[in-house]
Every structure is written in structure tokens, then in C-alpha cells.
């Protein structure tokens, strides 16, 4: 799946009535891409039910196929497309992988490639070449794997030698939890497993690391935290697993934020009784803005009265991928909204802090970049251009603001193809 074309500006629909909608969302990116990778490393075939079908998932599938896995479609329950059956094969080199803009692919797949028996060339979209990759390259070298890299970013070539010994390694995951998850995901296939330590200024997105550990344990791998920033994965087989992928709770963020923006209620089907997804924090993140949430019969209901949106100060270091949505609410709020703990989102699909500051300014608002976050001041907004910068979450942040501000023109709603290609249709259905 190519990057979206940039030829389709999208006028964000304005809400004319309080919401009363039921929403079903496609599968989780983070769960789908972990399940695909672990299935490709397992010792038997796995089936994924309701996997995400999006650009990031397609990139992971293509990458794993290039490394030797057989991945094919099988009839599913029809709601969000076919199931996927993954037959692992020996990891092969002598190939090239296009990571697009998928952080999971560019951080996870090079570690898998190290198990292979030849060179694997990695590259991605132009902006992918700006995303932090230094810890992937340093970790591989620290594990004795040769990497050809002009600097500490894409593109680079991993020269697998057929096996990785593993042992003990220290990295600095301040820029992304994905550096940790990547190593843990493949470590059961290292001869000695891996004891991994993080030493650095901060550790973002800890829930995603916990998701990684849980995904490993579900497949019979001994994997656990040994301290606040240390983990151990024992060497051993990875069991195949038939797994139903949960809906993407991070992509629930704009739909639930819409309730705060407009008032009314949204019922989100498929809310898991327990989950490792960081989107489980949405009820508490939206509460300061006046949203109340309840769970019944496997669905989350979020309700709000609408009207003035209060200000809030939130530390979102654990949930940086939800920050653009919260900042969008901040742009609509009647008092300042400050989100901190998210300096690392400057290295996401785009520099998200800069993108939000610039986009909010283009609508007449005021947002200020902080060293590790962003502060939005109350201001009347007017319609105008909202640039997506190839970033699904910046695109959907524009949609949230457009609910209350007529004439917000998202330049590239196709950016949502990264994790939720159905976004424009699902958004329209919520408002219908
Ligand atoms: O492991 C994962 O699936 C992810 C980890 C997080 O990355 P960062 O720690 O780089 O924020 C998150 O933001 C990203 O969307 C998905
Ligand atoms: C940061 C994100 O993606 P990626 O997996 O590309 O890092 C995201 O989805 O918000």
C-alpha cells in the first residue's frame, strides 16, 4: 500500500446535533503487528481474526514475507475483511524492506532480519529517514550484528549471520519504547535470550512494552520486567496462536473526543474487559474535559453535555500517541490545556508538537511548544487549512476541531490509511 496521495483535501464535517452513535473500529495496529511478527517466528501456523488492514499492517506483512514467512488470507467474519494465516519459515536474507512510515516495522523488523542469513536493506518514506533509529543500529551492533549505515537513521543494511547470541544489552529508549519492544519480541530466538536495560532520561509508552511482554507470554515465552527499566526474555520456542485482534483503542480517541467536543454520547463496541492497549486510558484522560464513561456488555459508553470545554493539565508520557487528540480538544477549550511528558512525539510520523502548533495557528489559535509538551491557550478559531503531514493522528485531530469550527480543510485525510483507512466513512456515520 503506497503512502496516501495528497490530492484530496477533505472538509471536516461540522456537527449540527448532539451525538448519539454506536461505533465499531478496525483492529489494533500495535496488536496486529506484534501478532504478525510473533507468528512469523513461531514454531507452527497461526491465524489472526479481525486483523487490522491498513498501510502499517500491509508493510509488516510484506516485510515478514520478504524474510521468509508465508502469510495468506482466509475467509473471516466479513466485518473488517479476511483473516490472516501465518506459516513461519526459516528467516531469509538477500532482500529489501520498505518500512513506509511504520515505526513498528522500522524498529521491529531489523532485529528479525538479524536472525537471517544475508543482507536485508531497510528504507522508508522520506520522513521515515528522519525518525530516530540510532538505538536499533546500536543494539544490533552491540549484539554482534554487522549493520551498514551512513548515519544513525534509515536507510541501512542489516547483515544477518544466521543466529544472534543475545545475552545482556543496555540501550537508551528515551526516543521510543519501540526500541525495547523490538528487542524483546525477537529475543526468545536469540541463543541466550536477552536481558535488556534502558538507561536514559525517560521511558515513554511503557504500556506498549507491557503489551510486548504480554504478547510473548501468551505464546509461552518467559518474558518479564526485572526492574523499572529492565527486562528478561528467556530463549525458547514461540508457540503459534489463534488470536482475535481487539479494536484499535488508540483510534477510538477522536471518536470519543468528539463526544466532548459536541456533547451527547458514543457507544464503542468491542471494548475489551481487559487489555494491554494504551487506549484503555481514554476514559480517565477525557474525564477532566467533562466526559463520563461506563462499560457494559462489552461496550464503552462516553457521554458529555457539550458546551464549554474546561482546561486541564495532563502528563501523557505513557500515552503519547493519544496526545494529538487531547491537544485538539485543547484548541476548542475555554481554558488553557497543557500536555507534558511527550517530547518524544517530535520523532513520530511527523514532529507532532510542531505540526499541532502550526496547524492551530493556521486556524487563528495559539499553541506553544514546551520542552516536553504543548500548551494551548483559549482563542476563537476560524476555518482554514489543516495539514496532516502524512500523520494519521494529526489528520484526525483536524477532524475533531472541525466538529465545532466550520471550514477546517484537512489537506490529506488519506494519511489515516496508516492505521484506519475507513476513517472518513466511520466519522461520517458517527455524525449521521
Ligand atoms: O509499540 C508500539 O506498537 C507503539 C509504541 C509507541 O511508540 P513510541 O514509544 O515511539 O511513542 C506508540 O506511540 C506507537 O504508536 C506504537
Ligand atoms: C507513533 C505512531 O506510530 P508508529 O508505530 O509509526 O511509531 C502512532 O501510531 O501514533
TrEMBL record:
<protein>
    <recommendedName>
        <fullName>3-phosphoshikimate 1-carboxyvinyltransferase</fullName>
        <ecNumber>2.5.1.19</ecNumber>
    </recommendedName>
</protein>
<feature type="binding site">
    <location>
        <position position="205"/>
    </location>
    <ligand>
        <name>3-phosphoshikimate</name>
    </ligand>
</feature>
<feature type="binding site">
    <location>
        <position position="321"/>
    </location>
    <ligand>
        <name>3-phosphoshikimate</name>
    </ligand>
</feature>
<feature type="binding site">
    <location>
        <position position="29"/>
    </location>
    <ligand>
        <name>phosphoenolpyruvate</name>
    </ligand>
</feature>
<keyword id="KW-0028">Amino-acid biosynthesis</keyword>
<feature type="binding site">
    <location>
        <position position="177"/>
    </location>
    <ligand>
        <name>3-phosphoshikimate</name>
    </ligand>
</feature>
<feature type="binding site">
    <location>
        <position position="418"/>
    </location>
    <ligand>
        <name>phosphoenolpyruvate</name>
    </ligand>
</feature>
<dbReference type="Pfam" id="PF00275">
    <property type="entry name" value="EPSP_synthase"/>
</dbReference>
<comment type="function">
    <text>Catalyzes the transfer of the enolpyruvyl moiety of phosphoenolpyruvate (PEP) to the 5-hydroxyl of shikimate-3-phosphate (S3P) to produce enolpyruvyl shikimate-3-phosphate and inorganic phosphate.</text>
</comment>
<feature type="binding site">
    <location>
        <position position="348"/>
    </location>
    <ligand>
        <name>3-phosphoshikimate</name>
    </ligand>
</feature>
<dbReference type="InterPro" id="IPR023193">
    <property type="entry name" value="EPSP_synthase_CS"/>
</dbReference>
<feature type="binding site">
    <location>
        <position position="178"/>
    </location>
    <ligand>
        <name>phosphoenolpyruvate</name>
    </ligand>
</feature>
<feature type="binding site">
    <location>
        <position position="393"/>
    </location>
    <ligand>
        <name>phosphoenolpyruvate</name>
    </ligand>
</feature>
<dbReference type="InterPro" id="IPR013792">
    <property type="entry name" value="RNA3'P_cycl/enolpyr_Trfase_a/b"/>
</dbReference>
<keyword id="KW-0963">Cytoplasm</keyword>
<feature type="binding site">
    <location>
        <position position="103"/>
    </location>
    <ligand>
        <name>phosphoenolpyruvate</name>
    </ligand>
</feature>
<dbReference type="InterPro" id="IPR036968">
    <property type="entry name" value="Enolpyruvate_Tfrase_sf"/>
</dbReference>
<feature type="binding site">
    <location>
        <position position="176"/>
    </location>
    <ligand>
        <name>3-phosphoshikimate</name>
    </ligand>
</feature>
<feature type="binding site">
    <location>
        <position position="131"/>
    </location>
    <ligand>
        <name>phosphoenolpyruvate</name>
    </ligand>
</feature>
<feature type="binding site">
    <location>
        <position position="178"/>
    </location>
    <ligand>
        <name>3-phosphoshikimate</name>
    </ligand>
</feature>
<feature type="active site" description="Proton acceptor">
    <location>
        <position position="321"/>
    </location>
</feature>
<feature type="domain" description="Enolpyruvate transferase">
    <location>
        <begin position="15"/>
        <end position="425"/>
    </location>
</feature>
<feature type="binding site">
    <location>
        <position position="29"/>
    </location>
    <ligand>
        <name>3-phosphoshikimate</name>
    </ligand>
</feature>
<keyword id="KW-0808">Transferase</keyword>
<dbReference type="InterPro" id="IPR001986">
    <property type="entry name" value="Enolpyruvate_Tfrase_dom"/>
</dbReference>
<feature type="binding site">
    <location>
        <position position="34"/>
    </location>
    <ligand>
        <name>3-phosphoshikimate</name>
    </ligand>
</feature>
<keyword id="KW-0057">Aromatic amino acid biosynthesis</keyword>
<comment type="pathway">
    <text>Metabolic intermediate biosynthesis; chorismate biosynthesis; chorismate from D-erythrose 4-phosphate and phosphoenolpyruvate: step 6/7.</text>
</comment>
<feature type="binding site">
    <location>
        <position position="30"/>
    </location>
    <ligand>
        <name>3-phosphoshikimate</name>
    </ligand>
</feature>
<feature type="binding site">
    <location>
        <position position="352"/>
    </location>
    <ligand>
        <name>phosphoenolpyruvate</name>
    </ligand>
</feature>
<comment type="subunit">
    <text>Monomer.</text>
</comment>
<comment type="similarity">
    <text>Belongs to the EPSP synthase family.</text>
</comment>
<dbReference type="InterPro" id="IPR006264">
    <property type="entry name" value="EPSP_synthase"/>
</dbReference>
Amino acid at each position: 500500500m503506497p503512502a496516501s496521495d495528497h490530492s484530496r483535501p477533505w472538509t471536516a464535517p461540522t456537527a449540527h446535533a448532539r451525538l448519539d452513535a454506536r461505533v465499531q473500529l478496525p483492529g489494533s495496529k500495535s496488536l496486529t503487528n506484534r501478532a504478525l511478527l510473533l507468528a512469523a517466528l513461531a514454531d507452527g501456523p497461526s491465524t489472526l481474526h479481525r486483523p487490522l488492514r491498513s498501510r502499517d499492517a500491509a508493510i509488516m506483512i510484506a516485510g515478514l514475507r520478504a524474510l521468509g514467512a508465508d502469510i495468506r488470507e482466509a475467509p473471516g467474519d466479513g466485518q473488517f475483511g479476511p483473516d490472516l494465516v501465518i506459516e513461519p519459515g526459516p528467516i531469509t536474507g538477500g532482500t529489501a524492506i520498505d518500512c513506509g512510515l511504520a515505526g513498528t516495522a522500522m524498529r521491529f523488523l531489523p532485529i528479525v532480519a538479524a536472525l537471517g542469513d544475508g543482507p536485508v536493506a531497510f528504507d522508508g518514506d522520506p520522513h521515515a529517514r528522519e525518525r530516530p533509529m540510532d538505538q536499533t543500529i546500536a543494539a544490533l551492533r552491540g549484539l554482534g550484528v554487522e549493520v551498514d549505515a551512513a548515519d544513525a537513521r534509515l536507510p541501512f543494511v542489516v547483515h544477518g549471520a544466521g543466529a544472534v547470541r543475545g545475552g545482556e544489552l543496555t540501550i537508551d529508549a528515551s526516543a521510543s519504547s519501540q526500541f525495547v519492544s523490538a528487542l524483546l519480541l525477537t529475543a526468545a530466538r536469540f541463543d541466550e535470550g536477552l536481558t535488556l536495560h534502558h538507561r536514559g532520561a525517560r521511558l515513554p509508552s511503557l504500556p506498549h512494552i507491557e503489551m510486548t511482554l504480554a504478547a510473548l507470554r501468551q505464546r509461552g515465552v518467559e518474558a518479564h520486567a526485572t526492574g523499572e527499566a529492565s527486562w528478561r526474555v528467556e530463549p525458547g520456542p514461540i508457540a503459534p496462536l489463534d488470536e482475535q485482534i481487539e479494536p484499535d483503542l488508540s483510534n477510538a480517541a477522536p471518536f470519543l473526543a468528539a463526544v466532548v467536543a459536541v456533547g451527547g454520547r458514543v457507544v464503542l463496541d468491542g471494548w475489551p474487559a481487559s487489555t494491554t492497549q494504551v487506549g484503555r486510558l481514554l476514559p480517565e484522560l477525557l474525564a477532566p474535559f467533562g466526559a463520563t464513561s461506563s462499560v457494559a456488555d462489552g461496550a464503552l459508553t462516553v457521554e458529555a453535555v457539550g458546551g464549554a470545554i474546561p482546561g486541564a493539565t495532563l502528563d501523557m508520557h505513557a500515552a503519547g500517541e493519544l496526545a494529538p487528540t487531547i491537544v485538539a480538544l485543547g484548541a476548542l477549550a475555554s481554558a488553557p490545556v497543557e500536555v507534558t511528558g511527550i517530547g518524544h512525539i517530535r520523532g513520530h510520523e511527523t514532529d507532532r508538537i510542531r505540526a499541532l502548533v502550526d496547524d492551530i495557528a493556521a486556524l487563528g489559535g495559539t499553541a506553544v511548544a514546551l520542552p516536553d509538551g504543548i500548551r494551548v491557550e483559549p482563542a476563537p478559531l476560524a476555518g482554514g487549512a489543516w495539514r496532516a503531514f502524512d500523520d494519521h493522528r494529526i489528520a484526525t485531530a483536524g477532524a475533531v476541531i472541525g466538529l465545532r469550527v466550520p471550514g477546517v480543510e484537512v489537506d490529506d485525510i488519506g494519511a489515516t490509511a496508516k492505521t484506519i483507512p475507513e476513517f472518513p466513512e466511520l466519522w461520517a456515520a458517527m455524525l449521521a
